[in-house]
């Protein structure tokens, strides 16, 4: 059972959104082609789904500005612009994404007291989303991961997939992902590779 996991392909992370990843929208045609031609048995997508008062928002910290380093529940926290608030257009999937092909949507980031980069569990690792259990129930043996942003939500999702699904082959699709910081992207790819995540391209998938 081969699955494709799409991380946060949402308006908020694309140009014009509240927390845009540079060229974030350019992954959409690549992902649509993967859905059409990648021979996947299952397509899963994560969706950042924050309450309006989420503690990772700079607006919730007196005097703080977006991208300041702050604190949330006793842990260091990048303070983000308000983004992907539940029920707003910013939280919607990109309008060009083939959402009809998505079999399962995993929402995350709903607890205002902790941030959730990974699609599998909160940043403090105290609460899981249920995605790992769903993939196990579907008897997934291969999981390809891509989306936004490479150096944050994709990175932590891939690492958690590696930890929580030890018998599954985990791959990161580099050209179907975009990141915020070039050095952060390099570091993320190096960490994923070191932890046993295979780094691949869409061309390799189509060639198979």
List keywords for this structure.
single chain; 208 residues; alpha/beta; Rossmann fold; 6-stranded parallel β-sheet; two-stranded antiparallel sheet; 5 helices
Topology:
Blueprint: E1 2-7, H1 27-37, E2 42-48, E3 69-72, E4 75-78, E5 104-108, H2 131-137, E6 142-147, H3 150-164, E7 169-173, H4 182-194, E8 198-200, H5 202-207
Parallel strand pairs: 1-2, 1-6, 2-5, 6-7, 7-8
Antiparallel strand pairs: 3-4
Helix pairs in contact: 3-4
Please sum up the structure shown.
The chain has helices at 27-37, 131-137, 150-164, 182-194, 202-207; strands spanning 2-7, 42-48, 69-72, 75-78, 104-108, 142-147, 169-173, 198-200. The chain has 208 residues and is α/β, with parallel strands linked by helices.
Question: What does this protein structure show overall?
Answer:
- The chain is an alpha/beta fold.
- The protein has one domain (2-49, 91-207): Isochorismatase-like (Rossmann fold, 3-Layer(aba) Sandwich), CATH 3.40.50.850.
- The protein is built from 5 helices and 8 strands, in the order E-H-E-E-E-E-H-E-H-E-H-E-H.
- The strands form 2 sheets. A 6-stranded parallel β-sheet has the order 5-2-1-6-7-8, with helices on both faces. The chain has a two-stranded antiparallel ribbon with strand order 3-4.
- Helix 3 packs parallel to helix 4 (182-194).
- The longest helix is centred in the C-terminal third of the chain and has 15 residues, at 150-164.
- It is globular and about 55 Å long.
- The mean pLDDT is 97.
Number of strands: 8
Number of alpha- plus pi-helical segments: 5
The percent range for strand residues is: 15-25%
Distance between the termini: 15 Å
Return the string of H and E elements: EHEEEEHEHEHEH
Tell me what the CATH architecture is. 3-Layer(aba) Sandwich
As a whole number of angstroms, the C-alpha radius of gyration is 16 Å
Structural class: alpha/beta
Mean pLDDT: 97
Unreliable stretches (pLDDT < 50, length at least 5) are: none
CATH topology: Rossmann fold
Shape: globular
The profile of the biggest β sheet is: 6 strands, parallel
CATH class: Alpha Beta
Q: Would you identify the CATH H-level superfamily?
A: Isochorismatase-like
Q: Give the fraction of residues assigned to helices.
A: 25-40%
Number of domains: 1
Across the major sheet, the strand order is 5-2-1-6-7-8
What oligomeric assembly is this protein in?
Answer: single chain
């Amino acid at each position: 059972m081969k699955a494709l996991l799409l991380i946060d392909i949402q308006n908020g992370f694309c140009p014009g959104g509240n927390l845009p990843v540079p060229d974030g929208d350019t992954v959409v045609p690549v992902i649509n082609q993967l859905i059409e031609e990648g021979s996947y048995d299952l397509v899963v997508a994560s969706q950042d789904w924050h309450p309006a008062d989420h503690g990772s928002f700079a607006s919730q910290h007196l005097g703080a500005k977006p991208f300041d380093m702050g604190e949330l529940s006793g842990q260091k926290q990048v303070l983000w612009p308000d983004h992907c608030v539940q029920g707003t257009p910013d939280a919607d999937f990109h309008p060009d994404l083939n959402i009809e092909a998505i079999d399962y949507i995993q929402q995350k980031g709903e607890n205002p007291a902790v941030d959730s980069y990974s699609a599998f569990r909160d940043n403090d690792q105290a609460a899981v989303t249920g995605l790992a259990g769903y993939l196990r129930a579907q008897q997934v043996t291969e999981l390809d991961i891509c989306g936004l942003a490479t150096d944050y939500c994709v990175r932590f999702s891939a690492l958690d997939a590696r930890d929580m699904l030890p018998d599954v082959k985990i791959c990161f699709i580099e050209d179907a992902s975009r990141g915020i910081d070039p050095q952060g992207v390099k570091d993320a790819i190096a960490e994923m590779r070191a932890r046993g995540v295979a780094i691949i391209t869409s061309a390799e998938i189509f060639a198979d």
